[in-house]
Amino acid sequence: MATEKTNHHPRDVPCPNAEDISPCVCTVIDASDFDMEMDCSSVSSNTDLARIFSEHFPFNNFYSLIIYNNIHLRTIRAGDLGQISFKRIDIWSGNLQSVETNAFLHSYDTLEYLEISSNMLTAFPYSEISMFNHLTTLNLRSNQLGGIPTVASLTLQSLYLNNNPITGINPSSLPLLYTIGLSFTAITHIPTGTFSGLSRLTNIDLTNNKLEVLDPGTINLQTSYNWVYLTTNSITSIAEGALMGLRGSLYVQNNQLTELAEGVFRPLMDMDVTVYAESNPLACGCEIAWLVLNSVYVDQLMDDTTCFSGELVRNLDPDVYASLCH
């Protein structure tokens, strides 16, 4: 993604000499504090990149590095970026396969945002993340990262691993984590306690995975308002106690739930959770009477939630359930 600052003002000072760093381009993107952006989208090789960053730079502290749509770089090596530090690094839509440990060494005390998305990463130095003292966002969407990443950081607030063939995650060492993106992965199961003990966790996206069962203790949130996305999995069963601490919205559309079990969903609705449950084969027998007979609960069931028969849940006749379900 592009840098968030606007009002670009190209100029020579404080940038390096333009000819020395070509084909990279240095731009002052904020004239008030001389924030510099380095766009190296057109470099032809690691040798080219390393040569540029070995040139004379009057100032070493840059706001951002951009490498966009570059088909030549396969790795970022330690030393390729010389002595330069960045607050933000964006590398997207390329063929990058790996990042060496210490590749961003001189940004340990400055980097706040790191994105390497829509590349071909098969390896990433997760163990180095704890060395970045101000990093708040790590975005590694749309790569080829597998396994179960272990990420530790005292500052990280947003972690995006969407669209990677990872099989799990261990976020327990991320005390400030606010949002985690894990959609379109190869996750089939979430061990008990995976999303527990994270006092600031507010947004969990597990859309489009291969989940079938949610065990007790799968998610236990502590924030005052939160969102959990479980849309488009193959969930057939949610155990009581699997979804604790929800106080916002739960998305379970397009799964294989045959019932909205009272022991699971009634406690959520008692906490004013809004439930999105469209496109599930709900039987809508007496097991759903607890909901149909309470208009407040019916109002908390959103979207066009239907029974297996196609009838809208909100149109079910409560008199029928009052008469036949005891």
UniProtKB/TrEMBL annotation:
Keywords: Leucine-rich repeat, Repeat. It comes from the Eukaryota. Gene3D superfamilies: Ribonuclease Inhibitor (3.80.10.10). The keyword Electron transport does not apply. InterPro entries: Leu-rich_rpt, Leu-rich_rpt_typical-subtyp, LRR_dom_sf. The keyword Protein biosynthesis does not apply. This is Oplophorus-luciferin 2-monooxygenase non-catalytic subunit. It comes from Petrolisthes manimaculis.
